[in-house]
Amino acid sequence: MRQKGSVTLGCVVVTVGVGAFVQIALQSLESPDRIWASLYQYDNLIDFTTRENVEIILGGFKRVLPDGQMVPGKGYWAYMVDDGVIVP
């Protein structure tokens, strides 16, 4: 983790099922008090779903809302407002 001002930046690895809601995946950061401020999904991919439609995203961030989903295999950055430990 890297300290920047009053906000801690950390990488989050998702291992919960096929996809989990943010509140479930970050449950250890919700109790007893919510210590995370925002969550961003990092995309760096080339998707060849069809021959005509190739999606290229090289280093883009997308905000994930608290009622959104987190997908295993994707990279996430959590901005925290207080010290904390991410535990399984």
Secondary-structure map:
Elements: E1 2-4, E2 7-12, E3 20-21, H1 22-25, E4 36-47, E5 55-64, E6 69-70, E7 75-80
Antiparallel strand pairs: 1-2, 2-7, 3-6, 4-5, 4-7
Number of helices: 1
Q: Which overall shape is indicated by the principal axes computed on the Cα atoms?
A: elongated
Q: How many separate domains make up the residues?
A: 1
Supply Rg. Answer: 15 Å
- Quote the average pLDDT: 75
Terminal Cα separation, in Å?
Answer: 17 Å
Order of helices and strands: EEEHEEEE
Which structural class best describes the helix and strand composition? Answer: mainly beta
Give the helix proportion (percent range).
under 10%
How is the largest sheet built, in terms of strand order? Answer: 1-2-7-4-5
Molecular structure report:
The protein has 88 residues and is mainly β. The protein has one domain. Helices cover 5% and strands 47% of the residues. It has 1 helix and 7 strands; from the N terminus they run E-E-E-H-E-E-E-E. Strands 1-2-7-4-5 form a 5-stranded antiparallel β-sheet, with no helix packed on it. Strands 3-6 form a two-stranded antiparallel sheet. Strand 1 and strand 2 form a beta hairpin. The longest helix has 4 residues. The protein is elongated and about 50 Å long.
